[in-house]
Recover the amino acids of this structure.
């Protein structure tokens, strides 16, 4: 590359660095509220936002032509990466400068910061891998201590108990079995418990029932026992199927024409009419042979602009149990920094603000759009994590957008040195049906970009844990966060190896 072009490239990098510095000065008052251990992380997050306010693609291509870093890994140590890049450009131009040594956070320290934050939240890693495996505990784990032990010896590091299911008696017995297994095999399993947040679910049913495309379904605001459609002897409809909604406040935001999704998008519908305390929904898509409507399954209204926030009364009751028994709580459906403030205040009231780790589950478009304010508020507490909850998030944000959304979430969390849990349907077919799909294997391999991978429960969960453990061990030599690594190729034959060594 000619000196003139290198000079223009150096000017572009200097302009970026100037913006990074000016933006950080503007945000300096905010940093005073951040937990001391997270101050540099919060500052680096602001640096990264400044960097990403530019379209870097042309700059990256030109840096690549020079064989230099393309700033693709700059998120965890933004200022250091920019200054180092500028230093080498100046050297190419024959301009001598001292090696830069003052940054928001150095490359080496940023790596240590994430490792320390992860260990504080998720415990020490296993000897053979850095990444942790979180597993949703089934209710039967309360009565099967051997199953719990097998899960831990197979690779489980973090046991997740979802408070949306079962009750304190079952949770207590699961925890007792976890501690018993830990004592027996000499391990310390992290206990993680979910609060439901303002999750919208189907209410009680007489019995699960199927719906098909073009069927109608009545959704009730008030708690009623739902039932399948009632037909006469000629199979003509007498009364449509009915189901209630566990969060009646949503009816204040619903409109005719709004789409509705049931059970992680397995059933789609549209609101045809609203009357009194019910909505008439026309089913627009199901599985080939129809889809089942079941109790306690999620309902999503992605276009309804729901303004529902904060801790529910049930969440507060569950948190009283969680504060005494868990290492980490998972905050479902956090939507705003105000939700984080409310949680922090309640944790202080319970006396566990310093002790209890919090993983924020990003599950809505609203949460993604406010992710930076949420992270900056979250960093006022000592132990922070984020779960990329891809099920609800894909429905709320759109299937066509979840690819770039999860990529940007990974980058933002890495910039803030916040550990990430990669969740939803990882090895789902294997856990539930005993055989993984090829795309599941690829997804699990891609998940090594996060600090933790979550498996859901299923009859074949032990096989799923074992396979995920093997995938992580095999993939970690090839990936470090968002950067590919290059160990020696496995497939080189002896002839190829001897040819290369000549």
């Amino acid at each position: 590359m000619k000196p003139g072009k290198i000079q223009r490239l150096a000017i572009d990098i200097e302009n970026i660095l100037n913006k990074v510095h000016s933006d950080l000065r503007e945000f300096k008052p905010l940093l005073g509220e951040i937990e001391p251990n997270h101050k540099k992380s919060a500052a680096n997050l602001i640096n990264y936002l400044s960097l990403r306010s530019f379209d870097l693609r042309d700059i990256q291509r030109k840096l690549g032509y020079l064989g230099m870093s393309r700033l693709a890994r700059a998120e965890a140590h933004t200022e250091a990466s920019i200054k180092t890049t500028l230093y080498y450009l100046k050297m190419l131009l024959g301009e001598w400068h001292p090696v830069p040594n003052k940054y928001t956070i150095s490359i080496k320290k940023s790596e240590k910061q994430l490792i320390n934050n992860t260990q504080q939240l998720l415990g020490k890693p296993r000897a053979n891998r850095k990444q942790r495996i979180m597993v949703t505990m089934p209710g039967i784990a309360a009565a099967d201590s051997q199953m719990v032990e097998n899960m831990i010896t197979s690779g489980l590091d973090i046991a997740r108990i979802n408070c949306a299911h079962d009750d304190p008696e079952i949770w207590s017995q699961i925890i007792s079995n976890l501690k018993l297994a830990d004592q027996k095999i000499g391990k310390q399993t992290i206990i993680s418990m979910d609060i439901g947040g303002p999750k919208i679910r189907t209410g009680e049913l007489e019995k699960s029932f199927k719906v098909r495309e073009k069927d109608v379904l009545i959704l009730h605001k008030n708690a009623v026992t739902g039932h399948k459609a009632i037909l006469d002897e000629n199979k003509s409809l007498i009364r449509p199927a009915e189901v209630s909604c566990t969060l009646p406040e949503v009816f204040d935001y619903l409109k005719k024409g709004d789409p509705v999704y049931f059970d992680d998008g397995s059933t789609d519908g549209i609101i045809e009419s609203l009357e009194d305390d019910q909505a008439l929904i026309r089913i627009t898509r199901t599985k080939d042979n129809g889809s089942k409507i079941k109790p306690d399954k999620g309902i999503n209204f992605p276009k309804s602009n729901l303004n529902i926030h904060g801790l529910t009364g049930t969440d507060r009751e569950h948190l009283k149990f969680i504060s005494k028994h868990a290492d980490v709580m998972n905050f479902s459906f956090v939507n705003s920094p105000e939700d984080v403030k409310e949680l922090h205040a309640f944790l202080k009231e319970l006396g566990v603000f310093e002790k209890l780790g919090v993983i924020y589950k990003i599950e809505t478009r609203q949460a993604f759009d406010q992710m930076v304010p949420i992270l900056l508020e979250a960093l006022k507490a000592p132990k922070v994590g984020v779960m990329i909850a891809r099920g609800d998030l894909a429905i709320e944000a759109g299937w066509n957008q979840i690819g770039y959304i999860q990529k940007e979430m990974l980058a933002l969390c890495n910039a803030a040195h916040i550990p990430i849990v990669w969740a939803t349907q990882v090895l789902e077919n294997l856990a539930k049906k005993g055989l993984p799909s090829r795309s599941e294997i690829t997804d699990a391999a891609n998940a090594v970009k996060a600090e933790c991978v979550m498996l859901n429960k299923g009859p074949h969960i032990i096989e799923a844990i074992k396979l995920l453990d093997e995938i992580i061990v095999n993939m970690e030599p090839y990936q470090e966060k968002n950067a590919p690594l290059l160990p020696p190729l496995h497939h080189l034959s002896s002839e190829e190896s001897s040819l290369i060594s000549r």
